[in-house]
Design goal:
Rossmann fold, Dihydrodipicolinate Reductase, domain 2, nine-stranded mixed sheet, Gfo/Idh/MocA family oxidoreductase, nucleotide binding, NAD(P)-bd_dom_sf, Gfo/Idh/MocA_domain, oxidoreductase
């Protein structure tokens, strides 16, 4: 008996899909990519040939009208997430949307409500959250392995500043380092702590050469019980990708926290234990988790409230930088 699979359509030929998400879906157990759409039929054709995708469309609308597609992946620029996620839901398609899911909390809520009304599954594409190590780390913290959590420090930086035509440098499209990579340490802190931040203070470098988006930002995000996340993110700095969880009796360090394998370190009393996992493709894990919700009716790994709350925290971080003030998150 052939197991049913989720049939995917890809909305746009964005590089993140080509490089990472689509190969992950194709590698997964319960999914297949059957179509791709671009505003240019020629681009769709070339993209499909490179990735072995059987069907192409010259418009996103035509893809949504295909009854043989169950779900769509949306890697469009941030300002287009809401409109196409809602259109996909209205067409009866399940939705995996690239992060951040929207430009603000209100947009995220609109997407959630549209998907709930249509009865389709919705997920935000934070692939790293599907790695087993994060579940293991949460359990180790719960078991008191590093004592009480005192704080977290996360960084995600890279240098793409010479690519002046990059869509990340268009402010009104949701450009900037906070939306692009700052959302990772923010979402990780929320995941590890299981709590929502109460306030944030951010200092950022807004570059006139890059559409006045934040090319570098450093922040302090406050959580309950005196715990805080300190973080920095950048699109004009040396590459870094790390998370440290500091406890009263030890610390946990992920040297490659968001792009990397399942390895992490537990450091206590001057001794380091290196913990290695199975290193399964996190994009494949993300796709199969999504398929469980579509095919088996299993609740999504991360709730819709989580999607909305994360957007509140990310937007609040950018607002704090622009206003140059400590912002209360409600």
């Amino acid at each position: 008996m052939i197991e049913k699979k989720v049939r995917w359509g890809i909305i746009s030929t964005a590089n993140i899909g080509k490089r990472s998400v689509i190969p992950g879906i194709q590698e997964s157990k319960r999914n297949e990519v059957v179509a791709v759409a671009s505003r240019s039929l020629e681009n769709a054709q070339k993209f499909a040939e490179e990735l072995g995708i059987p069907k192409i469309y010259g418009s996103y609308e035509d893809l949504l009208n295909d009854n043989e597609i169950d779900a769509v992946y949306i890697p469009l620029p941030n300002h287009l997430h809401k409109v196409w996620a809602i259109r996909a839901a209205e067409a009866g398609k399940h939705v995996l949307c690239e992060k951040p899911i929207a430009l603000d909390e209100a947009e995220a809520r609109e997407i959630v409500e549209a998907c709930e009304k249509a009865g389709v599954v919705l997920a935000e594409a934070f692939m790293y959250r599907h790695q087993q190590r994060y579940e293991d780390i949460k359990q180790k913290i719960k078991n008191g392995e590093i004592g009480e959590v005192r704080g977290l420090h996360g960084v995600f930086t890279f240098n793409n500043a010479s690519d002046y035509s990059n869509i990340r440098y268009t402010k009104e499209w949701g450009g900037g380092s906070i939306y692009d990579v700052g959302c990772y340490p923010i979402s990780a802190a929320r995941l590890i702590l299981g709590e929502e931040p109460t306030a944030v203070t951010t200092h950022a470098f807004f570059s006139p050469e890059h559409g006045d988006v934040d090319m570098m930002a450093s922040g302090l995000m406050e959580f309950p019980n005196g715990v805080a996340l300190t973080f920095d993110c950048a699109m004009w700095a040396e590459f870094r990708n790390k998370l440290e969880i500091l406890g009263s009796d030890g610390r946990i360090v992920l040297q490659n926290a968001f792009l990397g394998d399942e390895t992490y370190e537990i450091i206590k009393g001057g001794k380091t234990e290196v913990v290695k996992g199975k290193n399964i493709n996190p994009y494949a894990l993300q796709a199969d988790s999504f398929a469980e919700s579509v095919l088996d009716g299993k609740p999504t790994k991360f709730s819709y409230d989580d999607i909305i709350n994360n957007m509140r925290a990310v937007k609040g971080t950018l607002d704090a930088a622009e206003k140059k003030e400590r912002l209360i998150l409600k």
